[in-house]
Amino acid sequence: MRLTGLWFQRGVARIGLVCALGTTAAATARADFPAAAPGDSATAPRHRLRAHSPWETVVSLPGTVILLPFEVVLGGTKAVIGVLNRGHVSDRVLDVLVAADGSRALLPTYSARGGAGALYQQRNLLTRGSKFTLSATGGRLRRQLFEAQIERVRMASGRVTAGAGVRYQFLPDEPYFGAGFTSRESDKTNFANERTSANAGVALDVTRGLNASAGFGWAANNIRGGRRKSTPSTTAQFASLPGLRDLAQIVRIDAGLHRDTRDQRGRPTRGDEAMIGGAYARQTNGDDFGWVEAAAAYTRYIHLGYGRTLTLGTAGRAQWEAANRTVPFYDLLELGGRETLRGYQRGRFRDDETMRSTAEYRFPVQPDKLDAALFVDVGNTFSGDGAGFSGQQFHVGYGVGLRLWNTRGGGASVDAAWSREGWNFYVALN
Amino acid sequence: MTLVVGCASSTRWAAPRTRPDDRVSIPEPKPRAYDVAEDSFDKQAMMPLERRLDLSRQLRALAGRPKQAFNTDAFDEVADSAWFTNRNARHKLSGAEIERGPNTVDGPDTSTVWTVVRAKTEGVTPGFAIQDSRGDRYFIKFDPPGRPEMSSGADVVCTKLFWAAGFHVAEDYVTVFDPQRLRLGSKVKFTDKHGRTRPLVQADLDAILAGVERRADGRIRALASRSLPGKVLGPFSYDGTRRDDPNDLVPHEHRRELRGLRVMAAWLHHFDTKDGNSLDTWIDDHGRRYIRHYLLDFSSTLGSGSNHSIEPYIGHQNAVDPNDSFARLVTLGLHVEPWEKLRPAPWPALGYFESATFDPAGYEFYIPNPAFANCTGRDGFWGAKLVLSFTDEQIAAAVGTGQYSDPEAARALVKILIERRDKTGRTWLARVNPLDRFALAGSGDGLELQWTDLAVEHGFEAARATRYRCALFAGGKALQPSQVATEPRFARFPVGATQTPDQLELRIATARRDGGAWSPLVHVYLDRDPHAAAGWRLAGIERQD
Question: Which residues of chain A does B9 touch, with a Cβ-Cβ cutoff of 8 Å?
Fold first, then answer.
């Protein structure tokens, strides 16, 4: 084959285009670079060259037109970013919000249940290692949540820590589908729960990672008709539910063991977390409610390597009515929502006993910034007689999620979960 | 019509037009405002969109005819300019010259008091400016805690290498000083991290020095970067031209030096090549006042991230890389990138700097660079020649200026740089036909063209297995059948016939083994020249890529 054949190795179809590009570019070059005395660069013509030759400008015209609105929007965004940066706005705001040593932070927070608001954290308030949290959120239908909590205040030799908190919440559209594993999605109602509560507790650092804790709590619950008009009110649909109309004040004592060997809290990649505990609760302004509760949970974080983590967890809880008293419907154990069965609506299942398991595979999408997750949740509620405890009755939800995180604390997540009852989406910030 | 004309014409090759000298006097330009956040957004959000919608660019890609650099000469080289001075690739520098680099003094005088004349905690690295007893001003920066020698060593080593390659750089020194010798100057301004400027007080200086590691004797190792001569005009841009500089005629994204810089920057893991790490100054060069363009701040090189050790993904993807993120998302993270398996070097001065996962052509810069995005095979070949110009000894000489206290770390750094250099050469020399340094010999009735095969010269390919196919053309027509040679020369081709036109073209392809694929062509053009010894002279070359 002669060398000239090499000219055609890219294919005949390209030839015309190649010729056109080559020739027109050369022509442009001649127009852009008028002849100069060879070797005398100082006397060469001083014409500013264009990045695009005329034919390129013409050919690119459609793209330029498409680009125009983007240029306007992105150009505006760029200008705003520039103004903010030159004014050091982000630095100033961040410095107000988060102390350089991490001892103080004011963060935006959001959850579907509590609404949007702010979260203030102060570490080392009374003793080294303590954490004080103040949060206030609000949202649609006048939902509101105010909370003050102090944790991990060191006492005595430092092996004992104490904590206390108060909380007021008004949740206008808590869902109720009826009790039991046979409840139907179409039976959804909603109620408003105005709850004021206080708690205090101590924890003993038994060994590294293992804590024994005991606590005391008080709560006053005032149940009213739900404010979400699109679903019936629980007060109308389930008129005889225990705890529906009366203001119930309930005290609670609890104790438990908690083991935590996670390598980091925000984004654990290895270690485990185990809990076993019990509680006794009783009404103080009447004799209707009283129960005993037991709970156990175990979560294992398995590092698969290179930032990939498999999380396996299982949890079970049970309640027993105490001495002819009963459990108010809003304190029944529940499944559904972001913390338990993500494929189902929050509070979708309520009963005396719950059991659930989860498996989540998490992997990095953007190093040091963004993770993605695939998960499957399985679980159900059961009556005290064990009815419904069979493989066929377990509810399964599958989903995917994105987790934004940073090393200075804080994070955001978006989850989409699917079950036979449809899709559920969750957005959470800090 | 254009197609027909295009295919039928241009049988005589014309050398690219000579660029005017850009070092002639110009009126004093105004400083250019620069905002790093705007620049980052521009490069990460707007530039990719503009490139995708640039249909002429897509057409060129489809045709395999990328736009070549605008400022190359007949031999695909660049002239000395306000951007670049040909150094090591043209005339091998001695070890002493490499060690001295751009330096004109021996660094700040540490024997007497340093007067602090400015300070800042703004930006990535806190630091301050001093004036020494000689009246020279330096900006002082420090290594991050736990990483002594990392950023100061990297900066000085790379300053020497970039200078030796030909780029304009600042005089950077490793210095060790006694903080007790620092004195506050009068009316010194201090810029805090919020950009607020106020008078500097001792407490500010103490705060800057509080996080700095000290030696056993209380002294501090730091990087001292000498103030550049001339009026500071702000960073240059890697695209467009500077409107107030009449010398600035070539769009920067089409400058060979800036396109080819991609190769050199990847070699040295200089991932942070944003506009902000450059500087224009209006200088007085023996009476000529023009803008000189500098590369600045090499403390984010060789595995250093200036104030921290870099993350292993640096160099493998952009700061925000939607394409990589999407690929990882759809593959569910099951594919593990080689860089994810990296472990940091055992020497604190190096961090993540290695050669195993280094991909010279696929290297990704932290923020996309418009000039690098235009880098063609020819630009890459030119950049690779700069990199390959450094011998093992020269690299060792440059590393020596980093003054690493651990000889093991220094040896490891030299080894990694040599391995990355060779990878760079293998990659970019394979993109074109890597024949260079053409020479013409012989008389009027028979000429011999000789060349150097850079792939063979650097040991990337075996000479005995290499074949060169050469053909002689005139006016687009073959004058004789092609010949295959085993030596890097086209011997005694006849040019004495009176019918021979004024220009000859030799087309040369290279194959690395029998039956192996032929490389892209190099076209070598000869012009008849009665004044030349052989009656012909080399007019220029053109490489396919």
Answer: 23
